[in-house]
Amino acid sequence: xxxxxxxxxxxxxxxxxxxxxxxxxxxxxxxxxxxxxxxxxxxxxxxxxxxxxxxxxxxxxxxxxxxxxxxxxxxxxxxxxxxxxxxxxxxxxxxxxxxxxxxxxxxxxxxxxxxxxxxxxxxxxxxxxxxxxxxxxxxxxxxxxxxxxxxxxxxxxxxxxxxxxxxxxxxxxxxxxxxxxxxxxxxxxxxxxxxxxxxxxxxxxxxxxxxxxxxxxxxxxxxxxxxxxxxxxxxxxxxxxxxxxxxxxxxxxxxxxxxxxxxxxxxxxxxxxxxxxxx
Length: 279
Known about the structure:
This is Helix-turn-helix domain-containing protein. The chain is α/β, with parallel strands linked by helices. The protein has two domains: 4-80, 434 Repressor (Amino-terminal Domain) (Orthogonal Bundle); 85-277, Endonuclease, Chain A (2-Layer Sandwich). It is 53% helix and 13% strand. Helix 1 (4-20) runs antiparallel to helix 5, helix 2 crosses helix 3 and helix 12 (180-193) packs antiparallel against helix 14 (264-277). 27% of the residues are buried. The model has no long low-confidence stretch (mean pLDDT 89).
């Protein structure tokens, strides 16, 4: 299965080739590729390109922008490189989830809306454990591995590598996961995280009327130039990555949710009130 990294790279190279008016056959000949079908697999991401070939193609396509060249060559290197998360394939299931971890590591800003659970990047070990132990597909060892993976993902926030805006439905604060003690610890953790300059936590309270919010949770990854934002949606059947132009619908929905959400200070007050309920 092609990774999101190799798909992105192939798509951007195809766009640059088209813009330069160069045929697939000419590009294949330039690289010394035997046939156009192999070149087509490069452009669909089925086969990842080596960074040296990407460098050569960019020259052929007349790409002089050093920033763009650097980004695409870096993407080519990443397509061949195993991520730290690969060792957790045993508890991930669908390999497409791994691309979400790569996006987390590459994002400059992460925006989330959650309707059922706290987002994984903001969860405590106790909260995570309660979720995974309730999943019949995990035994005790697998649940522990899943918690370990989720904690490892949180390093991007601990290092300040990415900033985050999390909007949480008030329902999530009142929905019991595990024990009252686990809920109290989790909500206290949210209050602690909200004190960081790089993390903004807001609550969409029960009185807010935003119909897009009822469609469910989603995440937006802002990657910076030359990449457009990517939306990520997860459900019981798997996960979905939404890119431009369809991502505009998610960007618009998030704007609506954000406008209706309580301010950070009001949100902290609601979280503290919910925390009292779990004593």
